[in-house]
Amino acid sequence: MTEAPFALEGRRVWVAGHNGMVGSAICRRLASENCAVVTAPRGAVDLRRQAETEGWLASERPDAIFLAAARVGGIQANDTRPAEFIYDNLAIQTNVIEAARAAGVRKLLFLGSSCIYPRLASQPMREEALLTGPLEPTNEWYAIAKIAGIEMCRAYRRQYGCDFISVMPANLYGPHDNFDLESSHVVPALIAKAHRAKETGAPDMTVWGSGRPRRELLYVDDLADALVHLLKVYSDEPPINVGTGEDVTIDELARSVCEVVGYRGARRYDASKPDGAPRKLLDVGRLEALGWRAKTALRDGLARTYDFYLENVAAPGTEGS
Ligand code: GDP
């Protein structure tokens, strides 16, 4: 049933989660692939409902699926809403993977996360580190769901011969991210905070935790390019890491964000907020052997994300929300 390399030309490709940051980047990238992109209009199908998901796939009959629909959020959202993170993700991925098998979908790409690896995995983290130690507690519910998705793709490949693959991205950022300070990831949060501090002339801005954790940040359009590449060339059980191969401390990141935004005040660290994992740098050896490398420098990606924020989020009246 597997076809390598998988040709996208002339194919129907469903981007599940096309309204999100990752899904919208995949749609932008697929525009140059000569395939028909299928998306589910908002409200048309609740992927947490098995019958709705099966009905949608049976009627749309895509050849390939990018499974980018998920409940996502930053460290505080993960830590405080564990039930939503485990239930929504398990339900969405279980329904889509099983319905894809039933509908005879030829290729499916499941998106995981670098938080699936043990909290203290040796760095950079190779794909083999999966299930070798305890998880980071602030996002273990999300991680458990994502691990189940990887294992499901492996099981479906083994038992049914389905060409379903899994990809583990580093921490993502870019256009269409969530800039809400309570539920967002670190990059959009720092952009929104630095912008607000600049606009109001505040002497300092708050950064959560100690500033010492390290994060590997991948621009979402680079991720989309890697996903299209992997969908075409990769067809095997092990997940593939996608990252830049480099990381920065949160303090270094905050300094870069302030420079991009043009905020010259101080940074105040709030130790009452969690640091999360000390470090989660991905080993990208397998990805590079498959012929792909990240292109966007952090500074450029931050500048583009700030432009998006200025044009779409920081409109008068909504600023600082
Ligand atoms: P994580 O990679 O799952 O921990 O996700 P996040 O992107 O939410 O957080 C990454 C790191 O940035 C953590 O150490 C946070 O404590 C730190 N951080 C600093 N300031 C902020 C902030 O304003 N929002 C978020 N979400 N994280 C922040």
Detailed description of the structure:
The chain starts with 11 loop residues before the first strand and ends in a 9-residue tail after the last helix. The chain is 40% helix and 14% strand. The mean pLDDT is 96. Helix 1 (21-30) links the parallel strand 1 (12-16) and strand 2. The strands form four sheets. It has a six-stranded parallel β-sheet, sandwiched between helices. A two-stranded parallel sheet has the order 6-9. It has a two-stranded parallel sheet with strand order 7-12. The chain has 321 residues and is α/β, with parallel strands linked by helices. The protein has helices at residues 21-30, 50-60, 75-80, 82-102, 140-160, 186-200, 220-233, 250-261, 285-289, 298-312, and strands spanning 12-16, 36-38, 64-67, 107-111, 164-169, 171-173, 204-208, 214-215, 217-219, 240-242, 248-249, 266-270. Bound molecules: guanosine-5'-diphosphate. Guanosine-5'-diphosphate binds next to helix 6 and strand 7.
Strand residue content: 5-15%
Helix-strand makeup class: alpha/beta
Q: What is the count of DSSP helices, taking H or I runs of 4+ residues?
A: 10
Bound molecules: guanosine-5'-diphosphate
Q: Give the oligomeric state of the chains in this entry, treating copies of one chain as homo and distinct chains as hetero.
A: single chain
Strand order of the largest sheet: 2-1-3-4-5-10
Helix content: 40-55%
Gross geometry: globular
The helix/strand series, from N terminus to C terminus, equals EHEHEHHEHEEHEEEHEEHEHH
